[in-house]
Design goal:
This protein is an alpha/beta fold. The two termini are about 20 Å apart. It has a 5-stranded parallel β-sheet with strand order 2-3-1-4-5, sandwiched between helices. It has 9 helices and 5 strands; from the N terminus they run βαβααααββαααβα. About 50% of the residues lie in helices and about 10% in strands. The protein has a single domain, classed as 3-Layer(aba) Sandwich (Rossmann fold). The longest helix is centred in the middle third of the chain and has 23 residues.
């Protein structure tokens, strides 16, 4: 059973929970999308949940207390994620402080999203580091050659080289967790090839 129901809970545990992780630009979200489109998986995106959680009043208060009011957007008074990201991706200690604030709230959101669903995929780069792998039946590590990651981030996201280097450096632990996965996908080729690799993994899981 991938996760425990709290006392008095009536919703059954999902039949299959897959966790997909990998560093930025590896293609993990593309893998998640293939599972959704071909095998009817509900996707729980850690990034999307993080965006929701970050502006909860109690969370925002903790972030401002830790990082200062400079991380607030001057017009909306919401957390400026770009500004905050520039801080944490260049300072591992600051990144750890932000994770300590966010992850406890994100974990509760994820558990709620799991309830009542039969096929769920958690798309989270920090799957193991945050402990969300314990909510999964299977985990998939997606990785790619460094040069391809750079090309994807430059061409698709228009990230400057310095930002890419800072992000990859800050995500080194994710790559270190690669050997802990149930399955691995080397995403170094075409989308068609990626589909075949996902099909192969799903065949093993569902057999």
């Amino acid at each position: 059973m991938p996760w425990a129901i709290s006392p008095g809970g009536s919703n059954p545990s999902p039949s299959v929970v897959i966790g997909v992780y990998g560093i930025i630009g590896s293609g993990k979200s593309r893998v998640a999308q293939i599972f959704k489109e071909k095998y009817d998986f509900k996707i729980i995106s850690a990034d999307e949940i993080g965006h929701k959680v970050i502006n909860l009043p109690e969370v925002k208060e903790k972030i401002v207390k830790e990082f200062g009011r400079s991380v607030l957007d001057k017009d909306s008074y919401k957390i400026d994620r770009t500004c905050l990201g520039d801080i944490v991706f260049s300072d591992l200690e600051a990144k750890k402080k932000l994770e300590d604030i966010l992850w406890q709230y994100m974990t509760e959101y994820i558990k709620e999203e799991l309830k009542g669903s039969k096929r769920v995929l958690i798309d989270a780069a920090v799957l193991f580091k945050a402990g969300w792998n314990r909510l999964c039946n299977h985990t998939i590590y997606v990785y790619a050659p460094v040069y391809l990651i750079f090309l994807r981030l430059i061409n698709k996201r228009r990230y400057p080289l310095k930002k890419i280097l800072c992000i990859i450096k800050s995500q080194r632990e994710i790559a270190d967790d690669g050997n802990r996965a149930t399955f691995k996908i080397y995403n170094n080729s075409s989308v068609e090839n990626l589909h075949k690799k996902v099909d192969c993994i799903w065949k093993k899981i569902s057999s």
